Write the structure tokens for this entry.
Amino acid sequence: MKRILIITAKTDIHCHFVGLEIKKQGGDILRINTEDFAINTLFSVANTIKPAHWNFSVYVKDSEIEFDRESFDTVWYRKPDPVVADDRFQEDAAKKFVEREHTSFLNSFYNLNLDKRWVNPYWANRIASQKLPNLEVASQLGLQVPQTIISNDKSQIQVFCEHLDWNVIVKSFFTEGFMTSDGKYWMNYAKRIEPSIFQQFANSIEYAPVFMQEYIEKDLELRVTVIGERIFTAAIHSQEHERAIHDFRATSPYKIKHTVFELPDEIQKKLLAFNKHYGLNFSTFDFVLTPKGDYYFLECNPNGQWYWIEDLTGMPMAETMASFLLQNQ
């Protein structure tokens, strides 16, 4: 049996628990942590034997593992972090050069191995990460989506908000947080917006895209994880915790009750169709269940986090992922 190549980061606990399950099931893993790729890896790619065929070897120093193209048939593209160059570089431009060169090499390495089985396919992950096409695809599949606007035009934003009687919420379009020059870290959680707040910051809207949606009243938030054809749904009882009412990420998930939830078959089929549309074999989805029983699609993260769901609900997600990765091995 060939090993599973996992491309991830040191902080990835998912890899740890799934790796244990893979070993329980008789398999093994190869792991690349991309942040230390520049200092912890020796590699060589050459076409000296057959010009039309690239041979490569990779040696990971800390685990003392060496592998080549024939060592694996499946790649689990998990949560790679940006490459960080060795601290020996005093010149910032030289450090950035080294980091860019290693990053470009990794992208070529991924594309050299597209004939392997990927979870998820590298380019499918990137394409399926786009918020606006996701909302469009979800709507085309018959899922309810909130009314949405993305704009840097304050007059268009104001018209949208007034149309919804200011029953709106603002989110970041991409960046979840950032660190300021004084070392403080700011998280961009979803927030309700009132007219007075809008007027206070209206002139800054042109600085960056503003992502606003109709605010959907919540009974529950649902986190749906799709592994192959298996679907795991957790109800997040965010309305029971004051800090989590508008965005459950605003507090630790371990402070919020999570329960196993049975998603209607009709919606499950639409999510499988969503994955098929993008060529995904894994994904996570966020939904709102309203007090009236309506399901609203918020977004898909094709490479989302999920282990906290297993930890809080007991659903066998790591075991299922391990079995899925080992298929056809």
Observations:
- The mean pLDDT is 92.
- The two ends are 6 Å apart (CA to CA).
- The first strand starts at residue 3 and ends at 8.
- The domain at 3-119 is CATH 3.40.50 (Rossmann fold).
